Description:
This protein is 43% helix and 19% strand. Helix 1 packs parallel to helix 3. The longest helix is centred in the last third of the chain and has 19 residues, at 135-153. The protein has one domain (2-182). The protein is of the alpha+beta class. The chain is globular.
Amino acid sequence: MKSxxxxxxxxxxxxxxxxxxRPKTKEVEAGxxxxxYQNSTTAVEVALEWPEQYLYVxxxxxxxxxxxxxxxxxxxxxKLYCFNLENLLLLMEPxxxxxxxxxxxxxxxxxxKTLCIYxxxxxxxxxxxxxxxxQLFSRLEGIVKERAGRASSQGYVSKxxxxxxxxxxxxxxxxxxxxxxxx
Length: 183
């Protein structure tokens, strides 16, 4: 699955070359496979968390040409540099957010389909970000901070909300379930 992930990521995100992006890193750490594409202002991180069966894309603003970590705990005055594509899709096209499969398994075919959907979404909805215009980041930051504040006020601050790491498949199911209860 690892080699297929990197191959399909490179195929699907090939359009980034038109924005002067180059593949910068290919990392494997504890079952997480990460491909980072970068130009002078922006990074696109495509990752597969194999143990969690979760695939995600993050859009990041570079500082002095380098990726910056988001703070571990998100507060109202925190400066955020990276945002999960799913936050952008909440604003632009919520129907494109991929829901976990009922059995929780990510097949090679589903991985390819998801990478295709996410690459198309990045190309369509993040073109300004890819060019170094981060105006949308203020709206994304609002979403993340509102979510973190809501979690904090409920006495629950998960590692995913704190660090702005994408929700894992397990926690996404809990998150979706919790939001369904609020409706």
